[in-house]
Amino acid sequence: MINIQFKMDSKQAIKELTMTGHAGYADEGYDIVCAAVSSQVISVENSLEHLLGVSADVDVDEVKGGYLKIVLPEIKEPKLHHDVQLLMEHLHFALEILAENYPEFIHISNK
């Protein structure tokens, strides 16, 4: 199962995302659940950096896989903060839709 945890600040803005585990929907290379989750997360991570110029702190287990952590920097500029949060809320929403469709393979929590 893929466990996804979003950490929020005191104003409920997303400040961190941690993913652990493997979907186990199908064999490696054929797992559509893993591919869908990975695609969403990588797309948002790339958009943060290339569209908004925000470099998040990203930690990935390149050897075993099954671990990704994204920590957003503190952003003081209101418009940029809004744009970053919109992307992160989109990611949260997209992952929730996937979790609704594959509840035995994805679990999301907010902290």
Shape: globular
Q: Which structural category fits the helices and strands? A: alpha+beta
Give the SSE order as H and E letters. EEHEEHE
Beta content comes to: 25-35%
CATH level 3 topology: Alpha-Beta Plaits
The figure for the number of domains is: 1
Query: What's the helix count?
Result: 2
What does it look like?
- The chain starts with a strand and ends with a strand.
- Strand 1 and strand 2 (14-20) form a beta hairpin.
- Strands 3-4-2-1-5 form a 5-stranded mixed sheet, covered by helices on one side.
- The longest helix is centred in the C-terminal third of the chain and has 24 residues, at 78-101.
- The chain is of the alpha+beta class and 111 residues long.
- Helix 1 packs antiparallel against helix 2.
- The chain has helices at residues 32-50, 78-101, and strands at 2-8, 14-20, 57-60, 67-71, 106-110.
Characteristics:
111 residues, alpha+beta, Alpha-Beta Plaits, five-stranded mixed β-sheet, 25% strand, globular
Brief digest:
By secondary structure, this protein is of the alpha+beta class. The chain is built from two helices and five strands. The chain is globular and about 45 Å long.
Helices and strands, with pairings:
Layout: E1 2-8, E2 14-20, H1 32-50, E3 57-60, E4 67-71, H2 78-101, E5 106-110
Parallel strand pairs: 1-5
Antiparallel strand pairs: 1-2, 2-4, 3-4
